[in-house]
Amino acid sequence: MKILVTGAAGFIGSHVARRLLDRGDEVVGLDNLNDYYEVSLKEARLAPLANAPAFRFVRMDVADREGIAALFAAEGFDRVVHLAAQAGVRYSIENPQAYIDSNLVGFCNILEGCRHAGVAHLVYASSSSVYGANETLPFSVHDNVDHPLSLYAATKKANELMAHTYSHLYGLPTTGLRFFTVYGPWGRPDMALFKFTRAILEGRPIEVFNHGRHRRDFTYIDDIVEGILRTLDQVATGNPAWSGSDPDPGTSRAPWRVYNIGNHAPVELLRYIEVIEECIGRKAEKHLLPLQPGDVPDTFADVDDLRRDVGYHPATPVEEGVRRFVAWYRDYYGV
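RE: above sequence
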């Protein structure tokens, strides 16, 4: 198939593009290469992809309405994996406009492109942050998610609603994947594993929020990519049992679905830090701080729907995943 992967220079996007190429798909990778974090890392992710004959890179912002429309009109994509977004909960407090431009305007442009080009399936990144103030664990796609705690979370919830509208009005099959704390080689420098590893190796203290007592459903990148590809291959369909008198938030009469994609095994942050210390062979100096604005105490993914529908089975424990990341980090940065 010919597949558009937006955010192709990103952490998840670069891994997805590589797997699609490995299985024989043609991939057009789109990214604006912004400077939210070091551009050199994004370019390094793209470098091995550029050697593949079936890969082509387009530098463009998803908020470029005319550019995105022209790209869809010219390429004839079979399916789209939309991963481009302004990421980060805390940064959304500092720079909210970036989230409106990329996550709302950009997502609308992708929906319009899919609609007019007759794309067979759109799979897009949502986030576990949509659960917000929900305290019922594990988080289920059948739970209400109307109380986000950050603008980032609100934009991801809005994406799900926007996708539903296009699925309902135009019959566009859409599937949203609520990612739970993805980590692994080539990861993002603004995330805990990257920051902690860098600081410990450089002999600097690490900031540990909520005194390290919150739990995260850390999910290894290979498990995430496997779930994305399996979902992409199973085009979303409507739920004939859906009822407007007792509406299920996770399905619809329209060809629209949302799934959790996590490890289904939350780990306390202090334990996660212990694993990093073990892999590096050095203890961290910890500065214990309160929970940050916009953060939630715990995340825990109920992945039963994804397991049932596409056979998703996360297989990487944090001990192995962190070991692989630390090995990659040492190699990439020559530490």
